[in-house]
Amino acid sequence: MNLTLQIWRQNGPNDAGRMVEYKVSDISEHMSFLEMMDVLNEELVAKGDDPVAFDHDCREGICGMCSMFINGEAHGPDRGVTTCQLHMRMFNDGDTIYIEPFRAKAFPVIKDLIVDRSSFDRIQHAGGYVSVNTSGNTQDANSLPVPKADADKAFDAATCIGCGACVATCKNSSAMLFVGAKVSQYALLPQGKVEAVERVKNMVHQMDLEGFGNCTNTGACEIECPKGISLSNIARMNREFFVSALAGE
Ligand code: SF4
Ligand code: FES
User: Fold this and answer.
1) Region(s) of the chain under CATH 1.10.1060.10
2) Nearest residue (CA) to ligand 1, atom 2
3) pLDDT of residue 249
4) Separation between Cα atoms, residue 234 and residue 154, nearest integer Å
5) Residues 53, 111: contact at Cβ < 8 Å?
6) Which ligand is nearest to the CA of 68?
């Protein structure tokens, strides 16, 4: 495949940034999108040009680093995949592909396609943990029975990889699908009850401080989420928040 790439280039947070056109040729349909980007960068480096900066780590859909907006969609045109899992067979010979960073006030651009998602880390620090007894008298996990249905829902919520596609997709730059998943994975388990009241309040407060918008129930986040995180997690977070407010702490 021969492709034209329109890529967002931005030297740093204070640079205005612009789209720059590149050509790549002989791209195999079996390559991943990131491998195609590697081909481009090898050519740029060989010419002495600055390679395109983009985040990646695991390249198997686990770490959530490979945030890119491709032809107007977070992680590109396929469903249920991250950019590193996106194959070039989703595109056609001669295509022009537009590649941009995830855009949100709370995700400032560091360089080119790399954005700073440490706002997610700070939300996690605000409440995404459970008490752990390290006294040597740790309770046997099997003494706390968990209904299978709850365990499954908690596991599903815990598959959120913190990629930020939900934020980038939402017209309000809302992080409520992410925070809903992180609250739910604890709210559904007995181990998560200890800090439950404080957790949801603190995580939602931090979410607001970081400048994320509110949810208006459009549902675009759920469609673009590579892990299929359900909107029901937002509803659960809202219920947890209501209970927390009633607790008056
Ligand atoms: S909810 Fe989905 S889209 Fe949002 S951060 Fe988690 S995995 Fe990514
Ligand atoms: S590089 Fe880890 S999810 Fe894509």
Assistant:
1) 117-130+146-247
2) 225
3) 57
4) 13
5) yes
6) 2
From the alpha carbon of 85, which atom of ligand 2 is closest?
4
Tell me what pLDDT residue 177 has: 98
For residue 88, the 8-state DSSP code is G
Largest pairwise CA distance in the chain: 65
Cβ pair 54, 112 in contact under 8 A: yes
Q: What is the pLDDT of residue 133?
A: 78
Hey, which CATH number is domain 3-111, 3.10.450.50, 3.40.50.300, 3.40.50.2300, 3.10.20.30?
Answer: 3.10.20.30
Ligand nearest to the CA of 212: 1
Task: Report the pocket of ligand 2 as residue ranges, CB < 6 Å.
Answer: 56-59, 61-66, 82-84
pLDDT of 134 strictly over 90 = no
Confidence band, pLDDT 50/70/90 cuts, at residue 142? confident
d(CA 175, CA 202): 14
Nearest-atom index, ligand 1, CA of 228: 2
Where are the CATH 3.10.20.30 domain residues in the chain? 3-111
- Pairing mode of beta strands 96-100, 109-111: unpaired
pTM (two decimals): 0.94
* CA atoms within a 13 Å half-sphere pointing along the CA-CB vector of 219: 4
Counting residues of the chain whose pLDDT is more than 90, the rounded percentage is 90
Based on its alpha-carbon atoms, the radius of gyration of the chain, rounded to whole angstroms, reads 20
Which-ligand-closest: CA of 167?
1
CATH number for the domain formed by residue range(s) 117-130+146-247: 1.10.1060.10
